[in-house]
Amino acid sequence: MAQKNPNEAKLLAQNKKASHDILSKYTYECGLVLTGTEIKSLRLGKANIGDAFATIRNGEAFIHNMHISPFAQGNRFNPEDPTRARKLLLRKEQIHKLLGQSKQEGYTIVPLKVYVRNGYAKLLIGLGRGKKQYDKRESAAKKDAQREIARALREKQKVAR
């Protein structure tokens, strides 16, 4: 039986639309400040980051509109608002770098993935700008080319047998 790697991350939610609409320049892994019932609900996969965005206020980073459903067996400490602003745990240098780059024309901070690594909830945020129509066509063409290459390799392996 194979041993599980404790450093392996378990993906809980992914923002697929962000990878289609935004060209990420940098990515940062940050922690999330959650309540006990929120982490339980998150581990069950009850999270949605499709409409989420990140901001920086007073030297602290926050994520807004990240929906974490209330835990079914929760107690009185269950948060009432499932889309409340949650604090992101980043180093001061990372926050200053993000702030400086996000003030540039067209750059935004977007959450890409939520996962659990080593028992801690992590959020992968990306700094990027919106893709133009020609960028979307270019990335679709690259995907098609990769698909054709993989198909050709499979056919070649079938013939070789």
UniProtKB/TrEMBL annotation:
<dbReference type="GO" id="GO:0005829">
    <property type="term" value="C:cytosol"/>
</dbReference>
<dbReference type="GO" id="GO:0070930">
    <property type="term" value="P:trans-translation-dependent protein tagging"/>
</dbReference>
<dbReference type="Pfam" id="PF01668">
    <property type="entry name" value="SmpB"/>
</dbReference>
<dbReference type="GO" id="GO:0003723">
    <property type="term" value="F:RNA binding"/>
</dbReference>
<keyword id="KW-0694">RNA-binding</keyword>
<keyword id="KW-0963">Cytoplasm</keyword>
<dbReference type="InterPro" id="IPR020081">
    <property type="entry name" value="SsrA-bd_prot_CS"/>
</dbReference>
<comment type="function">
    <text>Required for rescue of stalled ribosomes mediated by trans-translation. Binds to transfer-messenger RNA (tmRNA), required for stable association of tmRNA with ribosomes. tmRNA and SmpB together mimic tRNA shape, replacing the anticodon stem-loop with SmpB. tmRNA is encoded by the ssrA gene; the 2 termini fold to resemble tRNA(Ala) and it encodes a 'tag peptide', a short internal open reading frame. During trans-translation Ala-aminoacylated tmRNA acts like a tRNA, entering the A-site of stalled ribosomes, displacing the stalled mRNA.</text>
</comment>
<dbReference type="InterPro" id="IPR000037">
    <property type="entry name" value="SsrA-bd_prot"/>
</dbReference>
<protein>
    <recommendedName>
        <fullName>SsrA-binding protein</fullName>
    </recommendedName>
</protein>
<dbReference type="InterPro" id="IPR023620">
    <property type="entry name" value="SmpB"/>
</dbReference>
<dbReference type="GO" id="GO:0070929">
    <property type="term" value="P:trans-translation"/>
</dbReference>
<comment type="similarity">
    <text>Belongs to the SmpB family.</text>
</comment>
